Amino acid sequence: MKIAISCTGSTLDSEVDPRFGRCSYFIIVNPDTMEWEALSNEAAQMGGGAGIKAAQLVADKGIEAMISGNYGPNAFQSLMAANIRLFTGASGSVRDAIDQYQKGQLSESTEPSVGRRFGMR
Fold first, then answer.
1. Total-model pTM
2. How far apart are CA 11 and CA 16, in angstroms?
3. Which helix (DSSP H) or strand (DSSP E) does residue 56 occupy?
4. Helix (H) or strand (E) holding 26
5. Residues with Cβ < 8 Å from 101, sequence gap 6 or more?
6. What is the DSSP letter of 92?
7. What is the dihedral of CA 86, 89, 93, 97, to 10 degrees?
8. Residues 84, 59: contact at Cβ < 8 Å?
9. CA distance 97 to 74
10. Closest among 6, 4, 11 to 22, alpha carbons compared
């Protein structure tokens, strides 16, 4: 199984980013083996459509679950269409988020958690 976590940096010690489409990186990890890779989020700087593009990036990696702080409507629909389970409620580092996921401490999302353009600065 592979999960992805939206985060601020490219290591397991990076902080979880509350933004999905505009996070700096995704860490893709197999929680059973802790093998992982960092994926730079090329969608982060897009003027529009970042959530959809970011969803395509992680879906192309074959993930089964996504951990992030929030999901906008477009990202939510794209991820659900790819049959990816969505989780929120993680805090701390990527390593902490993986632990929280394995312990069943995260909430599974059944709808978008924010409106459009939430992550725009």
1. 0.89
2. 11
3. helix 50-59
4. strand 25-29
5. 3, 31, 65, 67, 87, 90
6. S
7. -50
8. yes
9. 24
10. 6
C-alpha to C-alpha distance for 87 and 67, rounded to whole angstroms: 5
Q: The tokens of 45 are what? A: 């700087």
Token digits for 108? 């599974």
- Give residue-wise pLDDT tens across range 63-110: 999 999 889 899 999 999 999 999 998 999 999 999 999 999 999 988
Q: Distance (Å, rounded) from C-alpha 78 to C-alpha 72? A: 10
Q: Dihedral sign, CA of 44, 76, 61, 87?
A: positive
Tally the residues of the chain.
121
Q: Out of 3.40.190.290, 3.40.470.10, 3.30.420.130, 3.40.50.1000, which CATH number does the structure's domain 3-108 have?
A: 3.30.420.130
Nearest to 18 by CA among 100, 90, 85, 75: 90
Please identify which residue in the block is written with the tokens 């999302």.
109
Handedness of CA 22, 25, 28, 32 (dihedral sign): negative
